[in-house]
Structures are given as C-alpha cells and as structure tokens.
Amino acid sequence: MTLDWKNDIEYLELVEDLMYTEDVQSLSAFKQHRYSNRLEHSINVSYRSFLLAKKWNGNLRATARAGLLHDLFHYDWRTEKQAEGSHAYAHPRVALSNAKKLTEISKLEEDIIVKHMFGATVAPPKYKESYIVTLVDKYCACEEVIVPFYQRAKFKASTYFGLANV
C-alpha cells in the first residue's frame, strides 16, 4: 500500500527537518524486512502512526517524528551484534542516542522510540502515541514481508500453471 505522505503538507511540516538529513536518508542503504529498506519502513511507520494519532487526538508532532526515528541505527542487525544484548533490546537505545544527536527529543518521543519493541521487550509504553507506533511498526513489518511474498508466489503460480490471472 502506497500512502501519499509526500503530498501531506501537515505531515511534512512536522518531519521535513529530519526527513532529508544524511542520517535519515542513509537508512535506505539497509535492508529492513526482507523486501524493504529501513528508510521506507521508517517513513511507513511514521506516516501511518501520524494518521492514527490524528484520528485518535494524539500528539501528531511527537508521533510523526519518533515514528521516523524509531529505527535510526546504521548497522545490519542480521550480521552485527550489539554489546548491550539482543537486537530487540539494543536497537531502540541506539536509535534514541542517534536521534538525540540529530534533534531535541521530548520525553514522549523518547518513550515512543525506546518502547517501540514492546512485546519483544518487557517495559510497556507510557503513552497512547507509544502504543500507536509500536503496533504500526509490527503491522508494517508484517506487510513488508507478507505482501511481496504473496505477490511473488502468485506470479510463480500463474507462470507455473500457465494462468493469466491467479
């Protein structure tokens, strides 16, 4: 699903000072969930979380910005292990540290970034915005794997069975 974040002025006003920085743009060099890169994933999480926060009267600025920065780490987690422990535990802390070098981070944004792996980690989020980003992150991860996998399987089946439309 492609969302039109590039034409959403309200969203862009909240994140454009971050969006086009080298730190954020360089996330495109890292594969994220098999068929996507980390920049695409971060934008998807940020924008979808922003839309939900808007619908549910959340803090739009914190949700959009922390959603964009929630995976701001520059290593391949599949091959590079962190000394702090599991990837689920370590990468939110690395992302928060990197985010703080890029911009001022509020307590709400900090909670969103550090707690976005709730379920794989123990400490629960404190705010609804943190739950929004956490759940959207999981949704996007699933979508980024399942949709391309299904499309490839469908194409292979149609080719194998000689069917025009499977």
Automatic annotation (TrEMBL):
Residue ranges occupied by any HD/PDEase domain in the UniProt entry: 34-151
Record keywords: Hydrolase
UniProt superkingdom: Bacteria
InterPro entries: HD/PDEase_dom, HD_domain
Pfam families reported for this sequence: HD
GO molecular function: hydrolase activity
Matches recorded under CDD domains: HDc
Protein name as catalogued: Hydrolase
Gene source species: Vagococcus carniphilus
